[in-house]
Amino acid sequence: MQIVVTGGAGFIGSAVVDLLAAEGHTVRVLDSLLPDAHEGKPSYLNEAADYVIAGLDDLPALREMVAGADAVSHQAARVGLGLDLADITAYTADNAYGTAALLRALGDTGFAGRLVLASSMVVYGEGHYACPAHGPVRPGPRTPADLDAGQFEPRCRCGRPLEPRTVTEDAPLDPRSIYAASKVHQEHLCQVSGFPVTALRYHNVYGPRMPRDTPYAGVASIFRSAYEAGRAPLVFEDGRQLRDFVHVDDVARANVIALTADQPFSGAFNIASGKPRTVLDLATALHAAYSPGTPAPEVTGRWRAGDVRHVFASPDKAARELGFRAAVAFDEGIRAFAHAPMRHPPAAGRGKAQLSSVSGGKLRSRGEAAELSRRFPSHAEESCS
Q1: Strand order of the sheet with strand 71-74?
Q2: Exposure string over 109-134, b if 16+ CB within 10 A, otherwise e
Q3: Which residues are CB-contacts of 276 (< 8 A; sequence separation ≥ 6)?
Q4: How far apart are the C-alpha atoms of 103 and 100, rounded to whole Å?
Q5: In what order do the strands lie in the sheet with 135-137?
Q6: H-type alpha helices, 92-240
Q7: Using alpha carbons only, how large is the chain's radius of gyration in Å?
Q8: Which three-class secondary structure state does DSSP give residue 36?
Q9: Nearest 5 degrees, angle CA 359-CA 360-CA 366?
Q10: pLDDT of the chain, 385 residues: tens digit per residue
Q11: What is the pTM of this model?
């Protein structure tokens, strides 16, 4: 198959590219190499794939990229919470408008394949809860007053703390951050495109090539960076927030299943381990992988606007319909991640890469990139041989 991966130089996207290339597929990657996350060309780019350095706002590059493709893996996104309205234009431009531009390019080129969207568990907001007295309850946002008082658990209208339950794909969407709203918007845009769309709702992904010390760092990356610097990682709230930590190799495998199965899978799927852990469990497991004397995690009681208390998923639909179950055990994955290579932040003052494409480890001029795009099928076969 001829498969395009947007954001394929990033953490999850590069793992998808590696697995697709290993299976012999023709792989093309579009990535802007955003300077907030990359310092030029990453060393791990797969020699079997072809890379065009461009943003999703470059409609001509998008059209050239997707022409002739059998499937598209849309991984490109601005991630993180999006803490206030100063962030809203960047998230909307990169996530919502970027997805709209991709869909426009697919329509313009007569795309007849399938689209796999990297979505997120953040679309659910808070997870599923029940009250011992009143049954299922959907709590509103937690108030600053409760959080300041250390009352972190969502409460029922009767005042009782709610019990967290597993979230299924039919749960209402309830975004509680700018990033979450942009991911919902991505799903909705794709749903009305007319293409077969598989929305993979990733839970907390960790593993090699995670970005560190950037706006794109996740909690596993933040904790590990603290340990490497000889500092105690700071755990917000009381550390008992429940999440589902899933290894990037499993996430890549779920993408490849959705991209290459005989028939496309339409709808949303939780991509999760099915075994929730607390945030403090994560910090403690990473701590155990380091030498004696490394500072233990510090539970701070502090809180962050936009965070939810508990969200963890049922993996049953993905197992039943995709045939996907996570294979990397938490303890095994965290031990390996503690010493796996990570992506370092750009050096101060460095800008965006100035050439337009990379193929087989070589930078190409913009004219060469355009010619390569016109010859997508034959060139990609050569690069994957």
Answers
A1: 267-271, 197-202, 114-120, 71-74, 2-6, 26-31, 50-53, 357-359, 362-364
A2: bebebbbbbbbbbbbbbbbbbebeee
A3: 242, 243, 244, 310, 312
A4: 5
A5: 135-137, 128-131, 163-165
A6: 98-108, 144-148, 178-191, 219-228
A7: 21
A8: coil
A9: 20
A10: 999 999 999 999 999 999 999 999 999 999 988 766 677 688 899 999 999 999 999 999 999 999 999 999 999 988 776 667 888 988 899 999 999 999 999 999 999 999 999 999 999 999 999 999 999 999 988 899 999 999 999 999 999 999 999 999 999 999 988 899 999 999 999 999 999 999 999 999 999 999 886 655 689 999 999 999 999 999 999 999 999 999 999 999 999 999 999 999 999 999 999 999 999 999 999 999 987 889 999 999 999 887 889 999 999 999 999 999 999 999 999 999 999 998 876 554 333 333 333 434 333 433 444 443 333 332 222 222 2
A11: 0.88
Catalytic residue numbers read 179
Burial 310-339 (b: 16+ CB within 10 A, else e): bbbbbbebbeeebebebebebeebbeebbe
- Which amino acid would we find at residue 320? R
CA angle (364 as vertex; 363, 365 as ends), nearest 5: 130
Q: Copy the structure tokens of residue 249.
A: 């190799």
DSSP assignment, residue 284? H
Q: Is 37 in contact with 213 (CB distance < 8 Å)?
A: no
Token representation of residue 231: 């500092």
Name residue 320's beta-bridge partners.
Answer: none
Q: Specify which residues 5 forms β-bridges with.
A: 29, 73
* Of 287, 301, 255, 236, nearest in space to 81 by CA: 236
d(CA 350, CA 363): 18
